[in-house]
Design a protein that fits this description.
Number of strands: 15
Number of domains: 1
Distance between the termini: 19 Å
Number of helices: 10
Shape: globular
CATH architecture: 4-Layer Sandwich
Length: 318
Amino acid sequence: MTVRTIETRFRAYQLGQAGSSFSHFADDLFTLMEARLTDISRPNLKQELAQCRKTSIDVLHITGWDQDHCAVSDLEEILSTYRPAKIEYPGYPPHSDTAKECLKIILQYKSTNANKGRSVKCIAVDPDYIKGLKSAEDLAYRDTLYHPRALFDGESNNNSTIKLFRQGCFNVASLGDVEDANIGAYLRRCKIFKREVDVLLLAHHGADCPTNSKKFFQAVQPRIAICGSQFDNQFEHPKPQVRQRLFELKIPLMTTKTGDVLIRSISPHSHKFRATNLISKSTKVSSELDFSARKSHWLSMNADTIRNLYQPGFKGLR
């Protein structure tokens, strides 16, 4: 397997209110993560789409039904303006009136488009869907869904969708609001997850929880951690304890408190990428760091070495 040349972009949007919004672009596929859109993020999303030479969103990926991840008016605007061809929505039952309304809007969007002859794929990411997927057995450029493998009663945060975006030059791990220690332990055992994460989106906006523990960070060893949180949020996210853990492990942290976080592959778009924290409502730079993608190291190995990573004891083809 060889390292591919893929222009890749990731952006964490400053919202100016509770919630998170991110986008990922690789191999001409533009994914918007979370159905949130505000006066602050709207022009930046439009700019990012233009930068990626896109006029619409290919995939809308929603990790949870809470309003800070999926708001009714924001969802309606995203669907009508950016017309995604695929929607990955939470597979657990909506637990509030606004969540139920969001699901209704998604299903109506699919139906309306079908009546117009346009196929829209809507996927409820639930345990049955996860079980039906093929295992991520090799180092490749395929996005991988890890959770929900099971649903937690009365714990919507732990039913969030976990996805590793692997299609580009660098990999981005989205954890949603997952906090459970057992889920964190499961991810630490997943060979591809712990070997390939470059950009880690902190779980639950940087809350002090097992999926933001020192043990988890040590196992995953991301190149950089990203937190989507407003400047003066009531929970003080990301928590000081989480910041300290990252500092002790020498893992850089960028947040949308300062402004948008923009991460771009560097030409020839095969293994180097640059993370830039912008100053709010401007193109001025607050801080900037360069990295090498972790999977480029593994992909540079010969085939037998790669197989042995995933099949210990493999002695070569006979």
